[in-house]
Amino acid sequence: MQSANYTSTFRRITLMAFSVLIAFGSHAQAEESVVRDWNEVMLNAIRNDLARPNVHARNLHHFSEGIYLLQLSTEAAVVAEIASEVVTWPENAEALFAIQNDEANFNDAVAAFGYRFVQLRYSQSPGWGFTLSDLVAAFIASTGSTPNILLNSSPAAVWGWACAEAIDEAYQMDGANQENNYENTCYEPVNEPLDVTEAATCSNPVEFPNRWQPLSFGGSFVDQSGNQTFEDVIPFSGANWGNVAPFALDPTEATYAERDGCMYPVYLDPGPPVLLGESSDNQYDWQAGFAHVAVWQNHLDVSDGISIDISPGACGNINAYPSNPDYLYGIQEGGDFGTGHSLNPITGAPYPPQSVLRGDYTRVLAEFWADGPESETPPGHWFTILNDVTDYPEFDWKWEGKGEPMDPNAYLARAYRLLGGTMHDAAIAAWSVKGYYDFVRPITAIQYMLSKGQSTLTEGPSYDPNGVPLIEGVFELVAEGDPILDFEPQALGTVKTHRWLAGTSETDGAFGWTTGCAWQPFQMPTFVTPPFAGYVSGHSTFSRAAADVLSFATGSRYFPGGVGIFEVEANNFLAFESGPLESFELQWATYQDAADQCALSRIWGGIHPPMDDIRGRNIGVQVAEGSIAHFQEEMEALFIPILCPEDIDGNGNVGTSDLLALLSKYGEDCD
User: Fold this and answer.
1) Which of 127, 161, 198, 419 could form a disulfide with 112 if both were Cys (CB 3.0 to 4.6 A apart)?
2) Distance of CA 572 to CAs 372, 569, 576, 598, Å?
3) What does the angle CA 94 – CA 96 – CA 98 come to, to the nearest 5 degrees?
4) CA distances (Å), 433 to each of 8, 310, 445, 533, in order?
5) What would the pLDDT profile of 326-364 be if each residue is shown by its tens digit?
6) Given this model, what pLDDT does residue 417 score?
7) Are strands 15-17 and 194-195 parallel, antiparallel or unpaired?
8) pLDDT attached to residue 6
9) What is the rounded radius of gyration, in angstroms, for the C-alpha atoms of the chain?
10) Phi then psi for 396, rounded to 5 degrees?
11) Does residue 450 lie in a domain region?
């Protein structure tokens, strides 16, 4: 079935309204919002589920669409039909009238929708018991009742419940394979699994080094959300995700390509990655790109004593991404070529410098951006950032920063709708590339190069054209007098690697020299690397797309007050090992600065080479452009103002009954 048939484009949403429909009053900061409350419930359900960013992006999209339509129903001056090409919205005139005229009824409808939607999508999650407890508590807090009691007394709650079922049913055949727990429909890995429970011996290098390699955990895989699956080999998550019906992406503009007997729609195709053995027009060929990851891994070592300024005055402010990644990164020192911001545009004052140990900063980034501070996965993380932004005292609730402040429920429903659709399309675009190109991760690539030797000295020992490039302090040859020879005399002339020692209790925070192939990224030993191909980076795609959406919705590229802050407490943040040594703040001037930092964190964390990053960011830019344009078209179609300045029905008042009389007289063509 063609995904285009399920594209969630509103065909006709007609809300007949007075011209004053969108004149919202000013609302005090921190005013309660049932829409916000249930978004938080949804994020908690994600935290209690497996770390599947593509799946959660889809769920956030559908959840936000339902909340958005519920909120729109409260803004209509008359009971109107709300329909899309996908969802058959339940008809219930009594419920619609109730939620338009009573806040408590609206709360009932949202609570019932949220409860039922989360139940439908997350009842099979490993942390369902925690989620269910959270659902019940949130429902009682929103309505003062339990679902069983309220559904027998509140038409609004019955309607909200039915709306959740309608949304879920509408997308059952959207290409995600929800009915089979999102299993791949046509994909098999070409490489045998890499056993990460044993020290790599270099004796069995990967057969196809350009292709993704699954990992074997000996039956004890623990994902980034802390869920233990008791599986040995974790399959590729979302290899066929390009088949999923998008929000704004156009399936007719995708590239359809065949590989290994499977057909892959590829959205916003960045072209193939540079493969091993291919020449490149810059130094980032396959070997140099993956060696870059090993270089940056050493930046996580706090024992080097290096401190850097991480304030917005020194970091961020990249205006354009280069097509050639050579010009973006500080290869040896880390970071990018962002010059920082000379002044806070809101206060007019310089950003105060903040000197932090580079090893603390990079370790925190690797964990903070991995799946969000509470493992809500990257798409959910940007919902938490949006929620935090609306908590700022300076936040004014003006859509696009224009006009009058909106009711928080109305503002957030719009923002969630746009952000949810954008994160959904970012997942589809990024995973369509991941599935088709099936590109290798650093753990496989670096261990493969180490199994071959070194590729720098053609006349030197351990030479192989596919080996690692020799880099001082990272990849070196074991020479006479090396302390390693005291324990491994046979290692003379082989390659040694300076690396993180896997964060075991005996080596917590330690870096050191080892021989062999046992390189691993800065991740939990029970997780190591996400279970899907690397190219392109999902984090880079999600984050840049989300940053552009937040800039659009708030009307400013800057965080409120000119700076966003996340406080990091000494020795009370890191999970992969103890740390950081000192407390500090992550700070960003703009949403893009935060997104760019997220992208860099994946290189420091050992998950992506530069090649995965920049192309993912560029896809994110394109995704956001399409989503914003689509959302604006949606908004233009939503409201058809009809002026009713007269008492048409003669009842002495100007109101809904006059509009109904006007419609009855002239039909839908009146204007």
Assistant:
1) 161
2) 16, 5, 12, 21
3) 70
4) 22, 33, 19, 9
5) 678 998 999 999 999 999 999 999 999 999 999 999 999
6) 97
7) unpaired
8) 44
9) 27
10) -110, 0
11) yes
Query: Please, what's the b/e burial string for 309-323 (b: 16 or more CB within 10 A of its CB; e: otherwise)?
Result: ebbbbbbbbbeebee
Percent above pLDDT 70 for the chain: 85
Taking only the tens place, the pLDDT of each residue in 258-301 is 999 999 999 999 999 999 988 766 557 899 999 999 999 999 99
Pairwise CA distance, residues 382 & 427, whole Å: 13
Encode pLDDT of 178-222 as tens digits: 999 999 999 999 999 999 887 777 888 999 999 999 999 876 667
How far apart CA 479 and CA 83 sit, in angstroms, is: 73
Structural domain including 506 reads 444-515
List pLDDT tens digits, range 141-184.
Answer: 999 999 999 999 999 999 999 999 999 999 999 999 999 999 99
* Residue where the block lists tokens 């880099």: 471
Structure tokens belonging to residue 7: 């594209």
Angle at 601 between CA 597 and CA 605, to 5 degrees: 175
Q: How far apart are CA 301 and CA 386, in angstroms?
A: 32
Residue pair 195/174 in contact by the 8 Å Cβ criterion: no
> Are the beta carbons of 366 and 577 closer than 8 angstroms?
no
How far apart, in whole angstroms, are the C-alpha atoms of residue 390 and residue 652? Answer: 42
Instruction: Determine the Cα angle at 173 with ends 413 and 175, to 5°.
Output: 90
Q: What is the pLDDT of residue 200?
A: 73
| Long-range contacts from 360-363, C-beta under 8 angstroms, 24+ separation | 360/302, 360/579, 360/580, 360/581, 360/582, 360/584, 361/308, 361/310, 361/580, 361/584, 362/296, 362/299, 362/300, 362/334, 362/601, 362/604, 363/300, 363/302, 363/522, 363/574, 363/576, 363/577, 363/579, 363/580
Name the token pair of 416: 């969630």
For residue 17, pLDDT beyond 90: no
Tell whether the model's pLDDT for residue 55 goes beyond 60.
yes
Q: What is the DSSP letter of 314?
A: T
Q: Name residues whose C-beta falls within 8 Å of residue 81's C-beta, 6 or more positions apart in sequence.
A: 14, 89, 91
Tell me what the mean pLDDT of segment 434-445 comes to: 98
Give the pLDDT confidence of 244-261 residue by residue, as tens digits.
Answer: 999 999 999 999 999 999
Strands 15-17 and 511-515, bridge-based pairing = unpaired
Distance CA 298, CA 304 (A): 9
Residue 282's φ and ψ, nearest 5 degrees, are -150, 175
Give the DSSP letter string of 110-126. HHHHHHHHHHHHHTTST
With respect to residue 334, please indicate whether it lies within any of the assigned structural domains.
no
d(Cα 243, Cα 258) in Å, to the nearest integer?
13
Tell me which residue has tokens 């030479």: 463
Give 525's DSSP letter. T
Mean pLDDT of the chain: 88
Q: 328 in helix, strand or coil?
A: coil
**Inside any domain, residue 552:** no
Where residue 95 falls among pLDDT bands split at 50, 70, 90? confident
d(CA 52, CA 197): 23
Q: From the CB of residue 460, how many other CB atoms can be counted at a distance below 10 Å?
A: 12
pTM of the prediction? 0.91
Amino acid identity, residue 666? Y
Report the b/e string of 547-561 with b at 16+ CB within 10 A: bbbbbbbbebbbbbe
Structure tokens at 119: 């139940």
Confirm whether 327 is domain-assigned.
Answer: no
Region 402-406: mean pLDDT is 95
Q: At what angle do helices 538-554 and 408-437 cross, to 10 degrees?
A: 160
Confidence of residue 524 (pLDDT cuts 50, 70, 90): confident
